[in-house]
């Protein structure tokens, strides 16, 4: 991995901090090298009284690992971080993001995905 995509010790620590879930949903970000696109699949979110994400249909807590596959509500794509951010935050109303920390996180991740796309490095969502 290039130095551009590596996390510092401080970043690794910050990645493990507690954050509240965005009630508007969450995104799984990937890159499509063949089409040269950043991809962001948006999933709906329901949050229980304990602040845990639950399946909106069943009310079951969604596990971080080993959970049953869910269907994305929609998929956003863009050739650059700026393009995909404009789609998410300026062209969609209401935006599928309702929290500033979530929006900032997505912006950082889209930049990392764009760098990976341009450098040929692997992209792993933080």
User: Unreliable stretches, pLDDT < 50, 5 or more residues?
Assistant: none
Number of structural domains: 1
Helicity level: 25-40%
Question: SS-based structural class?
Answer: alpha+beta
Q: Describe the main β-sheet briefly.
A: 3 strands, antiparallel
Strand order of the largest sheet: 1-2-5
Please tell me what the overall shape is: globular
Q: Output mean pLDDT.
A: 86
β-sheet strand percentage: 15-25%
Summarize the helix and strand pattern as letters: HEEEEEHH
| Amino-to-carboxy terminus distance | 14 Å
- How many helical stretches? 3
Number of strands: 5
* Computed CA radius of gyration, to the nearest angstrom: 15 Å
Task: Describe this protein's structure.
The protein has about 130 residues and is α+β, with helices and mostly antiparallel strands. The protein has one domain (about 10-120). Helices cover about 30% and strands about 20% of the residues. The protein is built from three helices and five strands; from the N terminus they run αβββββαα. The strands form two sheets. Strands 1-2-5 form a three-stranded antiparallel β-sheet. It has a two-stranded antiparallel ribbon with strand order 3-4. α2 runs antiparallel to α3. The longest helix is centred in the C-terminal third of the chain and has 20 residues, at about 100-120. It is globular and about 40 Å long. The model has no long low-confidence stretch (mean pLDDT about 85). Pfam families: PterinBD-DUF4346. It comes from Cyanobacterium stanieri (strain ATCC 29140 / PCC 7202). This is DUF4346 domain-containing protein.
């Amino acid at each position: 991995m290039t130095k551009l995509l590596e996390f510092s010790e401080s970043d690794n620590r910050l990645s493990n901090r507690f954050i509240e879930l965005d009630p508007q949903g969450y995104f799984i970000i990937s890159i499509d090298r063949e089409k040269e696109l950043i991809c962001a699949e948006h999933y709906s979110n329901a949050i229980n009284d304990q602040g845990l994400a639950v399946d909106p249909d069943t009310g079951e807590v969604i596990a971080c690992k080993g959970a049953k596959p869910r269907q994305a509500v929609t998929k956003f794509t863009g050739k650059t971080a700026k393009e995909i951010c404009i789609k998410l935050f300026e062209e969609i109303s209401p935006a599928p993001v309702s929290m500033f920390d979530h929006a900032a996180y997505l912006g950082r991740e889209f930049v990392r995905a764009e760098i990976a796309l341009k450098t040929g490095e692997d992209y792993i969502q933080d």
